[in-house]
Amino acid sequence: MAGLPVAIVYDFDGTLSPGSMQQHTLLPELGYAETADFWSEVKALNKKIDGDEILAYMHCLLRDKPELVTRAKLREHGAALPYFPGVRDWFARIRNFGSEHHLDVNHYIVSSGLQEMIDGSDIRKNFRHIFASNYAYEGDLPRWPAVAINYTSKTQYLFRINKGILNYWDDKSVNQWVPMDERPVPFERMIFIGDGDTDIPAMKMLTYQGGTSIAVFDPARFQGADQSKVYKLIAEDRAHYVCPADYSDGSQLDVTVKGTLGKIARASGYRPKKQPAIGSLIRSLLSGTG
């Protein structure tokens, strides 16, 4: 019997991988010894043009040296990305747990980061679909941003997953009314995991629709502004749970996600097989009928 479809949707930067994906190898290769200088340039440009910050950063990346931002080069940088503890074996482990509870768990990405880098990462194979910012190419050279996913547009992609529309271009289908019980992945069987301010609209929308939102934080940076961010996520009812970004077996996040999956399974009618009482088992063994 096929399992009940469940979607776990992740942001990428700061959620699966520490910091921004660009900071580790891409920005240093582009000449930024201090990666903060790049983001300062982006913010200054965006304020000047009164534009979208995601489009601004994508423009700045290819502005001077597009030959260093080819699809192949970005995939190389993606292959070098670091991850939080437990990430590499997380996806199969959670799918297996879901299967044991008659759930078909699929993993998705919705990120403002670069799809070309995620495509080069060694965890790419774990995702059913990735929605992320990306370039339009002529050959291998990027020419302009084709998709820019910002903090509010992330909610659109939750609706695409909800309705089974796994592309960027089909606006008609994503806006078409579909009865809730006919959607491939109802919101109450969706979990969103994100880390920051850019994930708040997605968290809030999913919470409102009956899904589960989990905020994660980098334990190495849990002070000052990050502590304040966690406080606000809880106080302002943005997320159901807040956990350290540790995906190891038995971690707080691992237990929280498995508990949520167990809740989804129970709501769908799943019940674990009853184990025989210890007294009955002993009597059966002694009588030779066990």
Question: Secondary structure elements and their pairing?
Answer:
Layout: E1 4-10, H1 26-29, H2 35-49, H3 53-63, H4 71-79, H5 87-100, E2 103-114, H6 115-120, E3 127-138, E4 141-147, H7 154-163, H8 171-175, E5 190-194, H9 200-208, E6 212-217, H10 225-235, E7 241-244, H11 252-267, H12 278-287
Parallel strand pairs: 1-2, 1-5, 2-3, 5-6, 6-7
Antiparallel strand pairs: 3-4
Helix pairs in contact: 2-3, 5-11
General description of the model:
With 290 residues, the chain is α/β, with parallel strands linked by helices. It contains twelve helices and seven strands. It has helices at residues 26-29, 35-49, 53-63, 71-79, 87-100, 115-120, 154-163, 171-175, 200-208, 225-235, 252-267, 278-287; strands at 4-10, 103-114, 127-138, 141-147, 190-194, 212-217, 241-244. Strands 4-3-2-1-5-6-7 form a seven-stranded mixed β-sheet, sandwiched between helices. The relative contact order is 0.14. The model has no long low-confidence stretch (mean pLDDT 90).
